[in-house]
Amino acid sequence: MTVIIPKEVYKTIVAASVRFANTRMPEDDWLEVYGIFIGNIEGEDVIISEAYPITHQEKNPEDIIDKVYWNTEDYESFSIIDDRAFSQGDFTLGWWHSHPGFKVMMSQLDVKTTLSYQQNNPKAVSLVFNPVRLIRQVELPEKKGDPVKQLKNDPGFKIFRLDDVNRGIEASYHEIDYQIEGYESREQMVKQIQKFIIDITNFFPRRDIYERYEKYISDKINELNSKLLGTEEYLKTLVRKGEQHRTQEVLEEQVKDIRKFVAKTFINIENIKDFMNYLEFKERERVIPKVNEILSKWDEKVATLNSKFEELANKF
Predict the structure, then answer these.
(1) Dihedrals φ, ψ of 52, to 5°?
(2) Largest CB tally within 10 Å, which of 196, 271, 281, 290?
(3) How far is 118 from 178, CA to CA, in rounded Å?
(4) Taking a C-beta distance cutoff of 8 angstroms, is the pair 271, 199 a contact?
(5) Summary count for the chain: helices (H), strands (E)
(6) In the CATH scheme, what architecture does the domain 2-203 have?
(7) CATH code reported for the domain at 209-315
(8) How far apart are CA 158 and CA 110, in angstroms?
């Protein structure tokens, strides 16, 4: 039995998990993330087509162990996803969740959750992902004092199945094989995903998402305005100094610099748009339109850029 994982499914798990556990926040604030798999069965293989983030851990001081608290929106998400999958001939294939900063294994609660999936679908699987394992390429010990095992080109997760569902929550479990598609090699995969994690950390906040993107766009527009104003002042200075013959050359260089800045910002904005695919399902209908509205302010600003360049060229 092999689990087939497309590149975008893998990126979804990584992005949704890193959003709630990354270097921009204290480790004590790291939260687990939970989602489900949709796909189909081909022979003995599990073919995953979608990974949906559903919810994240909410820490309750009264809890002795970490728990998952599902709300009405989460159950509605399950229903919508199931209906959508069924209409396409697919179905739920199990679940995935993160263990940020600790060993990739299944707790008793994880076994209980996996049991519910395997009872409904004997081929169901459970994937456990740890971003630290992927970033540092180490297998964390089960308890303090145990040695850390060095890894190489590890994707940061393992996939498990219960040995015998008839044993209920006492069931043992084992690892199963998987294949991640879309990469030329494991080495390439790890390098690309580690860079992806940096982008997620910087541009996919877990809270205050509107404020963060508003500030980013505002800062970039202000920076662009500053570059345009600086270019015009530079050209005025050349004219005052009697060096008007240099204005065309200087303008061309300044335009080139500004276009590089715009291109780099455009890449970041396109990444932000892509990151909306990694929101929890219940967030998407509410968050995506608002984020698109915020990002459109940059498009509106850039749309006037060529006119501004022409204005400067005619003026000087």
Answers:
(1) -105, 120
(2) 281
(3) 18
(4) yes
(5) 9, 10
(6) 3-Layer(aba) Sandwich (3.40)
(7) 1.10.132
(8) 13
